[in-house]
């Protein structure tokens, strides 16, 4: 059955990092409330890079129900969990060490499989299947929220410009050993997983992102990886950015309100 056309992205731009962080926290709390009321759990995927520190508005916030969070990684570098390149280590240092998510609800890669990328990706996919397929019987998992970053080349998760994985339309988790950004070995959500989420939010800040954000939002026809994120209805894509990053963007902004 054909899906209705995706909704256009909603762009929120904030004058400074502080207002971006607090608005993002309010947005996440609304998503959490709806998910918990409906299903008793909140399924979230996080990215590495600059994203985890933007979640600081949740730390110590009385409305966060950390025990309801079930966390996966939109992508992970295939390194030991104490390696400085690990997205899990970054998220642990920045967030998990400061909040009370039950450890079994934080889904890290199986590091006994670091030398077998395919098996490691399969195993992570099976964790997703355990979390989603039995409960929702869906062809693809439907995350309540996927939080993404955008790299300076327009990549998101570990989906890089020109890479064959941009065309992967079957698997939930793909692997690569030729990431142009180190480290080379990674696993990543595929587009079908990202694009079946109820909400996908990119978070990007700083003048360093200005040209790429303009290209991704104003010239989606160029097909950069971040422009290919188009959640299927009823899913919705949001951009949470600061004015420094959106300075050159023509795409219309929406005033933030919940
Ligand atoms: O390598 C990665 O990069 C992207 C973008 O990082 P950022 O520092 O430019 O925000 C990140 O979203 C991804 O999780 C990570 O593995």
UniProtKB/TrEMBL annotation:
SUPFAM superfamilies from the UniProt entry: NagB/RpiA/CoA transferase-like
E.C. number: 3.1.1.31
Domain (Glucosamine/galactosamine-6-phosphate isomerase): residue spans on this chain: 16-239
Keywords tagged on the record: Hydrolase
Family affiliation: Belongs to the glucosamine/galactosamine-6-phosphate isomerase family. 6-phosphogluconolactonase subfamily.
Domain of life per record: Eukaryota
Primary role: Hydrolysis of 6-phosphogluconolactone to 6-phosphogluconate.
Species in which this protein is naturally found: Mycena indigotica
Record CDD domains: 6PGL
GO biological process: carbohydrate metabolic process; pentose-phosphate shunt
Top enzyme class: hydrolase
Reaction(s) catalysed (UniProt annotation): 6-phospho-D-glucono-1,5-lactone + H2O = 6-phospho-D-gluconate + H(+)
GO molecular function: 6-phosphogluconolactonase activity
Coiled coil segments of this chain: none
Pathway assigned to this chain's UniProt record: Carbohydrate degradation; pentose phosphate pathway; D-ribulose 5-phosphate from D-glucose 6-phosphate (oxidative stage): step 2/3
Protein name, UniProt field: 6-phosphogluconolactonase
InterPro entries: 6-phosphogluconolactonase_DevB (IPR005900), 6PGL (IPR039104), Glc/Gal-6P_isomerase (IPR006148), NagB/RpiA_transferase-like (IPR037171)
């Amino acid at each position: 059955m054909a899906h209705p056309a995706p909704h256009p992205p909603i762009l929120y731009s904030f004058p400074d990092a502080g207002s971006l962080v607090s608005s993002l926290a309010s947005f996440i709390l609304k998503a959490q409330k709806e998910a918990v009321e409906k299903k008793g759990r909140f399924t979230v995927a996080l990215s590495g890079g600059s994203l985890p520190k933007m979640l600081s508005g949740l730390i110590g916030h009385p409305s966060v129900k950390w025990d309801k969070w079930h966390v996966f990684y939109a992508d992970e570098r295939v390194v030991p969990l104490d390696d400085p390149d690990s997205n899990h280590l970054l998220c642990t240092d920045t967030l998990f060490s400061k909040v009370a998510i039950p450890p079994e609800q934080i889904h890290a890669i199986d590091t006994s499989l670091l030398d077998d990328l395919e098996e490691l990706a399969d195993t992570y996919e099976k964790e997703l299947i355990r979390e989603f397929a039995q409960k929702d019987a869906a062809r693809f998992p439907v995350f309540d929220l996927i939080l993404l970053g955008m790299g300076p080349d327009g990549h998101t998760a570990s989906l890089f410009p020109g890479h064959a994985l941009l065309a992967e339309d079957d698997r939930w988790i793909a692997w690569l050993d030729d990431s142009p950004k180190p480290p080379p070995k990674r696993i990543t959500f595929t587009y079908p997983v990202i694009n079946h989420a109820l909400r996908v939010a990119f978070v990007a800040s700083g003048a360093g992102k200005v040209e790429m954000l303009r290209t991704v939002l104003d010239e989606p026809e160029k097909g950069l990886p971040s422009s290919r994120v188009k959640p299927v209805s009823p899913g919705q894509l949001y951009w949470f950015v600061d004015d420094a990053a959106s300075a050159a963007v023509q795409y219309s902004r929406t005033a933030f309100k919940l």
